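Okay, can you check this protein?
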Amino acid sequence: MKIKYLILLICVGFTACKIPALISKQENKTVPAFYNTVQDSTNIASVKWRQYFTDPYLIAIIDSALKNNQELNIALREIEMDKNEIQARKGEYLPFVNLAGVAGVDKTGKYTWDGLAEEDLKASPEKGPKYIGDFRTGIYASWEVDVWKKLRNAKKSAVVKYLSTIEGRNFMVTNLIAEISSSYYELLALDNMMSIVQQNIELQKNALQMVKLEKEAAKVSQLAVNRFDAQLLHTKNLQYDIQQQIVETENKINFLAGRFSKHVARTSKALNDIPVEMVQTGIPSQLFLNRPDIRQAELTLAASKLDVQVARANFYPSFRLSAGTGFTAFNPGFIFSPESMLYNFAGDAVGPLINKNGIKAAYKNANEKQIISAYEYERTILSAFIEVANHLSLIDNYQKSYETKSKEVEILNQSVDISNKLFISSKADYIEVLLTQREALDSRIELIETKLKQLQAKVNIYRSLGGGWN
């Protein structure tokens, strides 16, 4: 026994000393202390999405999407698959017990040793072979002794991957809510643009009638009438482009909500009347808790480290115990007789000794995947921080832009009235009227676009901080 144990220790030591040395990477989790000069831990990411988005029409669309979105439901099935993987990994380090039963009949050749029994040879060499039955029943068990924790680490890795899949689903929910909200505000903006265009069409119709009267009074030429008429047609044409965008945006929302094309119910409130509240971003370190993609990357990294340990354990011998007990007989009438009972017990140790190239390659690849996961984790953190910083800047700049554009719209609206009065009194050229009308229309549309960017920045900062999934 001492010699056997000595041989076993030599084998273990020999296989262990041949494990290749690898270079690992320690992930960098350092982030700046704050986004700007303000250090306040109050964070809008902790606000539930139903409180952050208060429009009842938008809430109804999001509710529908969370139930029916196909991509989200696929993610839920993948979570169940990873959950099943945990069960499979857990079963690998528990004993396998099988119940077996065998029934059969063998007929051997006449002129073989198995075909002729000893008493048959004594009685008559010419006697033919017999049919011999084979009946067995019993319980058989095998168990791999997890000395190096290979199986337990594989199970832990499966658990971590399962949790990572859940975080991936949470991140998908965050993005889905943000995409629907952004598209909803875009739809409202298009409605408002359509309303502005229709208002301008009525104004330009009146202006065209006024110019026609001026022509009849010989105050302007046909050129002026044609220019006003062309501008009216140009404005009318804007309706069709906006209408097409409305159809496409509605269909996008319907697709995200997991339903076929239908009218998207929405508020009739003017986009400019929707408030954009002050955003509280908290501190960057809160991203580790709030962003599902960061937590997913962290769990993926943890799973890859466990996979390295599993791959390392393949260099060591594996120990397996097997046992069985049951009954066997050539006649079913004797199968449960005490004399028919059999049992066995065995143990084996198997370890790689020569040609471990496959194991080395798997070990090195597991280590490379761990390094890749560390870089991806760092990249996710950096990307999250930059997203927040960019959207904070967007909110600030679009607020200033909206204030400036609002003043421009007010001035140009006044200019339209002034130019019309000056034109009637022959103190302004019709070109000035046309240019003023065009500039006023463009500025009102640009104001809506700026407001839309404000609202989308509000959506994106909420998503970037990790809000929406809880």
